[in-house]
Design goal:
The protein has 10 helices and no strands. The protein is mostly helical. It is globular and about 40 Å long. It has one domain (10-82, 91-177): Peroxidase, domain 1. Helix 1 (10-20) crosses helix 9 (149-157), helix 2 (24-32) crosses helix 4 and helix 6 (98-109) runs parallel beside helix 10 (162-177). InterPro entries: CRISPR-assoc_prot_Cse2, Cse2_sf. Pfam families: CRISPR_Cse2.
């Protein structure tokens, strides 16, 4: 019996396209909401989240989607064309993860602090994850490296489950330490499981 390929991150990609359509004020509101718990004060929550399946509408799935929306707003601008974004070019069967992007940054400058930040990110739980991700995304932005936002959303949404978190950590670490090639590592996208 052969394993069936996992479906692409269609819902996550649609969510990122919805974020790309936001205006300057809406993105600024999302950036400010990074400091609010679960974005409780964010007035645009409903239209943004309608693009995600029900599994993202409660609990950690919601928090993960809101966190990625805030991180996206932190570095992306309305003048960026959604059709030229990295996520739009990504093949559903080949996606970069955050470890790949941080590894690329590390190899650019070979700063030990980048590796230390990455290791701290791998060691965090969901309560400290927003802080570490914000720092990582800011570091990447300084070198004009954008995460695969849909892949990041799927990974963060699964972070609260220890077995999935361990799997994600392993994939990120392998991608971080893998010698740089022209193509990103092949990674089958894994959809978020239903909230337990």
């Amino acid at each position: 019996m052969t394993a069936q390929p996992k479906p692409p991150l269609e819902a996550e990609d649609a969510f990122i396209r919805a974020l790309a359509s936001l205006g300057r004020g809406e993105l600024a509101e999302l950036r400010r909401s990074l400091s609010a718990r679960s974005g409780a004060s964010y007035r645009l929550e409903r239209p943004i989240f309608e693009h995600l399946p029900a599994r993202y509408h409660g609990g950690w799935g919601h928090d993960a989607a809101f966190l990625v929306a805030g991180l996206y707003a932190l570095v992306e601008r309305p003048t960026d064309r959604p059709d030229t974004a990295d996520t739009a070019k990504a093949s559903p069967s080949v996606r970069r993860n955050l470890g790949h992007d941080l590894g690329r940054l590390y190899r650019l400058h070979e700063r030990p602090s980048t590796e230390k930040r990455f290791l701290a990110l791998l060691d965090t739980d969901e309560t400290q994850l927003p802080y570490h991700l914000r720092y990582a995304v800011t570091l990447l932005n300084a070198e004009d490296i954008r995460p695969d936002w849909a892949r990041l959303l799927a990974d963060i949404a699964a972070w609260h489950r220890p077995e999935r978190r361990d799997e994600i950590r392993q994939r990120w670490a392998q991608a971080f330490y893998r010698p740089q090639t022209d193509a990103p590592p092949t990674e089958s996208p894994a959809p978020l499981e239903e909230n337990a």
